[in-house]
Amino acid sequence: MESNADGARAGKAVPAGANRWTMRDVMTFVIFNIVIIMVTMIVKMAEDAVLSPQNTFFVGSWLFPLVSTPFYLVMADRIGKRGVLSGSILLFGILYTFMGGVYCAPVAVVGAVVGELAMWGRGAYRNIVRAAAGFFVYWATFACYGIVPYLLFRDAYMEQLGAYYSASDVAAMVAQYTELPWILLMLALFAAGTALGAVVGAKFLKKHVRKAKIA
């Protein structure tokens, strides 16, 4: 019997309840998001250990999505239902909120809405290009976590950073998160990292996951 996943990939109609999450979907969502967050945090700690704050901008912006996109694509393909992207954005936003960035919560809500609208339509989560494009919204939201504090409480935030970083580092960070050319470069790096990660993830999906009928 053809599964809902196979029907969605073939563009056929699926039952009305096909978008209802199962316990397996929830477990897949939780496990893969933990992996994505842990991988990102490990890369972030390694990056901070070897690079100055003003130079992490040029590495993390493409490296974070590169290492996490393959995991996201597998998760999206295995679940294949509405809410995967918005839930992932909200989960990451909640984490950053509890880490002290209260402003991250409303940013995450906006990102979740935009992300889910971008994924509207049948079979979107099992379309690798669309899934990768949606995951870029995840990282664009992440970029906003760095931009918003400079916009809302710049002086207080700069004073806080000054207690940990040199004046040159703080000046560079302010420019990178407030000046349009730098912001556009950051988004372009996020897009490049997501695209490259999608290439890796697509090969793994086609060669292993779908071939083994895991998804």
UniProtKB/TrEMBL annotation:
InterPro entries: CHP02185_IM. Coiled coil: none annotated. The keyword Membrane applies. The keyword Cell inner membrane does not apply. It comes from the Bacteria. The chain crosses the membrane at residues 26-43, 55-74, 94-119, 131-152, 182-205. Keywords: Membrane, Transmembrane, Transmembrane helix. This is MptD family putative ECF transporter S component. It comes from Rubneribacter badeniensis. The lineage of its organism: Bacteria, Bacillati, Actinomycetota, Coriobacteriia, Eggerthellales.
